Amino acid sequence: MRAIVLIFATVLLALRPVRIGAQCDGCEGDFNGDGEVTINEIIVSVNNALDGCPGPSPRFVENGDGTISDTKTRLQWEKKSDDGSIHDQDNTYTWTSGAPFDADGTAFTSFLATLNRAPCFAGHCDWRLPTVVEFQGLIDYAQFAPAIDPVFYTACMPECTVTTCSCTTLDYYWSMTSSAEVSNNVWNVDFNSGYVSLYDKTLPFYVRAVRGGS
User: Cβ distance 163 to 118 under 8 Å?
Assistant: First the structure.
């Protein structure tokens, strides 16, 4: 968008001091030679300036190391596999071990602890659960089963790894955002349909790690 604005500004500067519709002699952008520069001729000038320019980059970028980067939020997401590893889409974890409902369930003590153990997943040791807002940012309501960008659901088949496929279970995933009203509940996001709901922290649900941002 910034490049388009700059190019458009350059075109307008090239046309000054001519006003749209004003009579002029040999104006740049006066393609039909009628002595006036019209809106349509300005649009033609802009299109000509943009000819050959690359289109916008995709929002989600496959990094080739088992992760996906979000160019909009600058977050880096773990890909899920179907190979029985720590990344397997079918693995479920608890958020807490029980009262007082601290973050001491297997999502933290097993899943995140494994990702953040040296040499660490994809070379980073700061993986965490996403906030509910970050998770909602992945929901694509134009998609269904799963309601997420196709980059998160590609070539998923038995024994595929995070470098050969990308999986998403059609169910609820843990966020790190606890309920402000009920201490033993956490917001979960359903990537089958895009619903967001509260569930008890002791229940087993799916996970996807993220890093960066909050």
Answer: no
